[in-house]
Amino acid sequence: MGNRSASDGDQHDDPDLSHVQPETGDSEVCDENDESGLPKPQEYDRPYFDVFDYLSDEYADARNLNEAIEIRGQKAFAQSVTPDDFNDASPDNMTKLGIAELWAESTWNDGRSTRNIALERSVAGIQEGDMLEIRRCSEEINPWGYSFHRVDDGVTLPYTPYHDFDDRFLSQMLDDLSENERLVCQVRDTTCYGEDGIDADPSFHWRVYTCRVTVYRQNLLESRED
After folding, report:
1. Closest residue by Cα to residue 147 from 171, 115, 114
2. Which among 88, 32, 66 has a CA at the least distance from the CA of 164?
3. Which helix (H) or strand (E) holds 208?
4. Rounded Cα distance, 211 and 191, in Å
5. DSSP one-letter code for 116
6. Among 28, 47, 114, 174, which residue's CB has the most CB atoms within a 10 Å radius?
7. Residues 6+ apart with CB under 8 A from 138
8. Quick one: CA dihedral 22, 23, 24, 25, positive or negative?
9. What is the pLDDT of residues 65-80, one digit of tens each?
10. How buried is 130 (Cβ within 10 angstroms: 0-12 exposed, 13-18 middle, 19+ buried)?
11. pTM of the model
């Protein structure tokens, strides 16, 4: 199974820390729901990554930013991979390609904006073992040039790549597909992070739904023959 790849720049800003990005780490599913029937968020306890960290000694061997991001992606892969990831068993004519992380966010302010309940429910319902499909699309539809869908009904999900190396990895895997192949992924785990009120603005609320997935290339011709 190949390592994760790299691209320029992290994908998202944390609601409270402009250009800071939390690193990949272990995650847990929220078991309790709030008054809207959505998960109660857990505290954001993952390490933060600042884009200027690429200038640190940790990435001194990188000749350019792309190589630094690739090093970071390889470190994240090493933290996420398990012995089971190296077995040869792949379902439904699929070839295992690697691991990626996705996320979707929701923010609102008391009295000034409304919480997007529909968006949150669409990702809060995603569970371990669910299958998603990644499809190329116009950047007018999605600025990343691809979108995420539930395999069982094709419903579009508001996920985007979590890190720069996730974006690069998924883009490369999509580019490598042949006419009779598609890119699918199986959910490894999900997490809901968030806060209700921050120091700078007590009326501000945020939720981040993360989703780690195992990515596969599926041969559609072989699937039909089976």
Report:
1. 171
2. 66
3. strand 201-219
4. 7
5. -
6. 174
7. 145
8. negative
9. 888 888 887 888 788 7
10. middle
11. 0.79
